[in-house]
């Protein structure tokens, strides 16, 4: 029996006490539809976690990260879905004001006001 697994990245982009979050509203039938999430996505062929992080961040936000930290891997195992290895990062540089951001809804809420994290988990 072969195990099908996928690799993904997730990054929380920090600026002081704020975190850049993306509001997922574009795709139909999106598991994360209408949720505020961090930046990231699926690996492309032969990508390292760092390569995937930098590409996804450029594609989703228009930002080029210059300082980031690998925090570890989160493993999701399910009887229904394929196994996922999510490589978790935080980043603190590349969030300069005036960056050319795409028309993706983004938000930098103060961390202390992140009650939407609780709402996300309870939906």
What does this structure look like?
- With about 120 residues, the protein is an alpha+beta fold.
- The protein is about 15% helix and about 35% strand.
- The protein has helices at about 50-60, 115-120; strands spanning about 5-15, 20-25, 35, 40, 65-75, 85-95, 105.
- Strands 1, 2, 3, 4, 5, 6 and 7 form a 7-stranded mixed sheet that branches.
- The protein is globular and about 40 Å long.
- It starts with a strand and ends with a helix.
In short:
This protein has two helices and seven strands; from the N terminus they run E-E-E-E-H-E-E-E-H. It has helices at residues 49-61, 116-122, and strands spanning 5-15, 18-23, 36-37, 39-42, 67-76, 83-93, 106-107.
Keyword list:
seven-stranded mixed beta sheet; 123 residues; alpha+beta; globular
Helix and strand layout, with pairings?
Layout: E1 5-15, E2 18-23, E3 36-37, E4 39-42, H1 49-61, E5 67-76, E6 83-93, E7 106-107, H2 116-122
Parallel strand pairs: 1-6
Antiparallel strand pairs: 1-2, 1-4, 2-3, 2-7, 5-6
Supply the helix-strand structural class: alpha+beta
Number of strands: 7
Strand content: 35-45%
Mass-distribution shape? globular
**Could you describe the largest sheet, including whether it forms a barrel?**
7 strands, mixed
> Could you estimate the helical fraction of the residues in percent?
10-25%
Q: How far apart, in Å, are the first and last alpha carbons?
A: 35 Å
Tally the helices: what do you get? 2
Elements, N to C (H/E): EEEEHEEEH
Question: Which radius of gyration do the C-alpha atoms yield?
Answer: 15 Å
Mean pLDDT: 76
Low-confidence stretches: 100-105, 113-123
């Amino acid at each position: 029996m072969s195990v099908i697994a996928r690799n993904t990245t997730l990054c929380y982009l920090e600026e002081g006490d704020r975190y850049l979050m993306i509001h997922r509203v574009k795709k139909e039938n999106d598991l994360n539809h209408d949720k505020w999430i961090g930046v990231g996505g699926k690996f492309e062929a032969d990508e390292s976690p760092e390569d995937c992080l930098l590409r996804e961040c450029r594609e989703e936000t228009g930002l080029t990260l210059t300082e980031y930290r690998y925090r570890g891997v989160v493993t999701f195992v399910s009887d229904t879905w394929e196994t996922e290895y999510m490589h978790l990062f935080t980043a603190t540089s590349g969030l300069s004001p005036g960056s050319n951001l795409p028309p993706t809804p983004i938000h930098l809420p103060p961390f202390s006001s992140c009650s939407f994290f609780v709402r996300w988990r309870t939906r």
